[in-house]
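I am still getting used to backbone structure tokens and would like to learn alongside you. Would you supply a protein for us yourself, any chain you care to pick? Start from the sequence, derive the backbone structure tokens from it, and show both lines together. Go ahead whenever you are ready, and we will take it from there.
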Amino acid sequence: MDTVRYPSYRDSGLPWVPEIPEGWQVLRNGRLFAHRVQTGFPDLPILEVSLRTGVRVRDMENLKRKQVMSQKEKYKRAAKGDIAYNMMRMWQGALGAAPVDGLVSPAYVVASPFPEANSAYFSYLFRTAAYMREVNKFSRGIVSDRNRLYWDEFKQMPSLLPPRAEQDQIVAYLRVQDAHIARFIKAKRELINLLNEQKLRIIDHAVTRGLDASVALKPSGIEWLGDVPEHWQVNRLKTLCAMKSGDGITSFSIDETGEYPVYGGNGIRGYTSGFTHDGEFILIGRQGALCGNVHHVSGRFWPSEHAVVVTVRPQHDIQWLRKLLSAMNLNQYSISAAQPGLSVERLLNLYAPVPPLDEQGYIANTIELETQDIEIAISRTNHEISLILEYRDRLIADVVTGQIDVRDWLPGPDDEVADEALAALGGDEDIEADGEDEDGEE
């Protein structure tokens, strides 16, 4: 549909949305939600939150999540339709409407909507960039990265209130757009998976067999490796590199204006004013969905607790080792397949094929050349996903603040929405930790 503005607007009195449609109100959250503090419901399912798609029922096959079942008496009840948010991470979008009656961590606040409030509309509104900046203003704590948005501050925050029928229409419209975007993202991610498989086949052959097809082979003695070139060695990883787990979250305050990047298991998580590492390193995702992920960093940085820092010994090529580690499928060595977690000691004792130093560099360079087109295709596809997600964020912000009028929109024959299909809007790395280490005091 073509974007249409409302016929008339008025001054909202809010700096983050200067004008709103006539007929919309601005009310404090305490006029829209009641505070629900209920514990002692151990039979309810545990809920988790995606930073992009909201609250969903947690997969209890995860080992770590089984371990917290003994603490379910302390968890808070969120009734179906309640808004639940993480006090420390609402500014990142750690909130959503409960799809069923369930339990959330004590580190969460549960807000029960009054009849005039559609919690799905507010779940969209609260995750807009403008609103999350307001969350920071109302949060308090000793240091910035430990700020919390308590109920007393949340209830004072002003929010927009369209008429209830318009809220419902906005939610219906955005869910349909989400479904179309999710299908696009799912197709792009499937393409990326195929490209990655193709790339890994090239890497695997090069780092385990070398580049000379005529060279004589010998048994490696390692089941996953099979035969290797006769002049290669087979050594433990600890002879090739040193490894150390990254630093805890409290080492430095994460600050988007900081000078040094904070690296997790899959790239930059934020910035900080200090650094603990300076040089060229390999990082391995240590736990969670990114367990076993391998990437290269250089310069001054701070590695988070979700990464293993690999320092390559001088007699080995860092780019060759990065490709070797990628080919080793390290997540298979996690302590638990249900809650992946890599042990540094276990990694260091793994065996790997080791060609001479000059051959290591040749292999690394050849892999770069042979996978260059694949890398370009992966990068382009990831960029397309980023662009569609940026479009989604802008569309949501415009619709929930009344800058686009969707009251006359009607769903078409292809506009069916299934909740499970919307999961593609986020990724496993998008799942928010539930704050089990927090006391949740309010």
Q: What stands out?
A: The chain is about 30% helix and 25% strand. The two ends are 45 Å apart (CA to CA). The chain has a mean pLDDT of 88.
